[in-house]
Amino acid sequence: MEKAVFSAEKMYTYIRGYANGRAMKQTLCALTYAREKHKSQMRKNGEPYIVHPLTMACHALALGINDDVTVATILLHDVCEDCGVSPYELPVGDEARQAVKLMTFSVEEGETKETAKDRYYADLLSSRPAAICKLIDRCHNVSSMAGTFSVAKLEAYIEETRHYVLPLLRRVKDRYPEDSDVLFVLKYHITSVVDAIDESLHAAK
Fold this sequence. Notes:
Elements: H1 8-21, H2 25-37, H3 51-62, H4 68-76, H5 79-83, H6 94-103, H7 113-124, H8 128-144, H9 151-175, H10 180-204
Helix pairs in contact: 1-2, 1-3, 2-4, 3-4, 3-8, 4-6, 4-8, 6-8, 8-9, 8-10, 9-10
């Protein structure tokens, strides 16, 4: 495994210090809880799983997204889906719990995977913290997928990003215009990475 770009411990310490200084109680609880729940999990690239939500949280703070609910949502966004935790068990308030619930993908009875995705992405729009979290999640995932995903998985992920994520970004901009500057940066990053990888895949064929 290559040396990690960012230190999990340094990111954890930075977020904890930031949250302490601003009395972000939900973020502080989420930080400890997420590290505990993800402690034995690894990413496909060999990094400890906790690096993913920590990097996302640092990304959010760097972009000026520093409200307690959104940062707590980011830290907890994979806990329910990957650790078997109910949203009602999360050590945060109702708004953050609902946002994490919206971030947790599932296929309900009577749905196909595609209709479940349609519902999932439409529902994300009802919660600013969930929508912002999803976009930062995709931003980090597309940045780390090269060299980790198979060609088929890369192509599927690029297609999903273009079909669902970028339209979601446009709808978020319409609904939450106060986030336009942040959304511009996220769109630029996501499209740049996706287009570059797609071009490389086509050139290799």
